[in-house]
TrEMBL record:
Superkingdom to which the source organism belongs: Bacteria
Segments forming domain FAD dependent oxidoreductase: 20-410
Organism: Mesorhizobium delmotii
Pfam families: DAO
Protein name: FAD dependent oxidoreductase
Ranges that cross the membrane: 21-38
GO cellular component, one term: cytoplasm
Record carries keyword Metal-binding: no
MF term (GO), any: oxidoreductase activity
Keywords tagged on the record: Membrane, Oxidoreductase, Transmembrane, Transmembrane helix
Length: 428
């Protein structure tokens, strides 16, 4: 029987076994938050229902996409929306039965794409990316994980002159923030990725784009480093959170009530459900992404290939080739539709003639996304002992070290390195 009474809450708050800092979520965001706080000498416990880096953070596209500063609403999605929605296996899909629930989020997404909000979102994201690059460099050095970094750059590909020209405003915006790139065609394009289909007439090479050898192994390695500084893990599902004057309470699935002096909610696509318990309604939606991980021998991929017109990438990992991406706005309860991963693999075969599709492993993960493409980083509205760190969308791995730094500074009472108001939980 669940012990959720006021007496149980009070007993938990007075318990000598109180946790210093509890983190809900064992994905890459929670891992990095734990690493930074443990480095600072705080006692940290992560709670996760599955394990460390076992869910969405385990199967992503492995990119440290520091140049990806354009909010999603500005990256051509609105323009492509009618065409994509007409294809149930295309880059963007919305199950018809889910559309009524999704409409409020879509309205916010459309508003986020208006020109009057463009510069503020762009500047906020660019600042976050500068911090992310610096913090990842430092964290990798301290944790001894620098050998897991690949610095091969990325290659974005275009099938027509019209598609290339449509991309130019976005590249001009990146250039204003000091992001380097070069447009290539012909022999230069072929040299960057031999074996491409001739349907691709131009590309854009971004030398500063980085990937990691395997996102799951990197996450576990950062966690091992956090453990050396005293961080702990407890396998448990958290069903309820609450706030008091002196801390927070966590109610586990078995009814156990635990106390924490400070709580960080970094539970990815489930975070907004926990935030509701303490009175914050945050418009998080779930982008379900699909991929197929092939043997390394499937194709000699030189660097991450970005097929932006089709919404997916091909990434060379240490021991595999990963084909994945696309967006299915379908929440967290619907079963996976692996026809989407098969459709991506079919396209990859056309784009990379010679790609061997045999021996693949299909996967689906949940991207926790907010309408303006900026995460929530900050304190709960009415609970100063609870901090949010979620909603990074496609950029969780990229921005995780920066988020760890920012959350650490908030909890320690230090001034943040930049204005956090664009990331405030109260901005909606």
């Amino acid at each position: 029987m669940r012990r959720s009474s006021h007496a149980a809450w009070r007993a938990a708050m007075n318990s000598d076994a109180a946790i210093d800092i509890a983190i809900i979520g064992g994905g890459i965001i929670g891992i990095c938050v734990a690493a930074y706080l443990a480095e600072a000498g705080r006692n940290v416990t992560i709670f996760d229902r599955t394990g460390i880096c076992e869910e969405t953070s385990s199967g992503n596209a492995a990119a440290l996409a520091f140049s990806d500063v354009l909010p999603l609403a500005h990256k051509g999605m609105i323009r492509h929306l009618p065409k994509w929605l007409a294809d149930p296996l295309g880059p963007l899909s919305i199950p018809p039965a889910y559309l009524p629930k999704l409409l409020p989020w879509l309205v916010r997404f459309w508003r986020a794409g208006r020109s009057d909000r463009y510069e503020a979102s762009l500047a906020a994201q660019a600042g976050m990316m500068r911090l992310a690059e610096a913090e990842w460099a430092g964290l990798m050095a301290r944790s001894g994980t620098g050998n897991m970094l690949r610095e091969d750059g990325s290659l974005e590909l275009y099938e027509s002159e019209a598609e290339f020209k449509a991309s130019l405003p976005g590249w001009a915006a990146r250039q204003r923030f000091g992001i380097g790139f070069s447009h290539v065609e012909g022999d230069a394009l072929a040299a960057l990725q031999p074996g491409l289909s001739p349907r691709f007439v131009k590309g854009t090479f971004v030398p500063g784009w980085k990937t990691v050898t395997d996102p799951k192994l990197l996450g576990k390695a950062i966690w091992a480093y956090a453990e050396t500084n005293g961080a702990r893990f407890e396998k448990a599902r958290i069903d309820q959170v609450g706030a008091g004057l002196d801390g927070a309470t966590l109610t586990l699935a078995d009814g156990t009530v635990r106390q924490a002096k400070c709580l960080v909610i970094a539970a990815g696509a489930w975070s907004h459900l926990l935030a509701k318990h303490i009175g914050d309604r945050i418009p998080l939606e779930t982008e379900r992404g699909y991929n197929t991980t092939l043997p390394k021998t499937a194709f000699d991929v030189k660097r991450q290939l970005i097929f932006s017109g089709h919404g997916f990438v091909v990434t060379p990992l240490e021991t595999a080739v990963r084909v994945g991406g696309a967006v299915e706005l379908g929440g967290i309860e619907r079963p996976p539709n692996y026809a989407r991963s098969k459709a991506l693999l079919d396209k990859a075969q056309k784009f990379l003639p010679g790609l061997d599709p045999a021996g693949g492993r299909e996967w689906m993960g949940f991207r926790p996304s907010l309408p303006d493409s900026l995460p929530v980083i900050g304190g709960a509205r009415q609970a100063g002992t609870i901090v949010y760190a979620f909603g990074h969308g496609h950029l969780g791995l990229t921005q995780s070290a920066a988020t760890g730094r920012l959350v650490r500074d908030l909890i320690l009472g230090q001034n943040p390195v930049f204005d956090l108001s664009p990331f405030s939980p109260n901005r909606f």
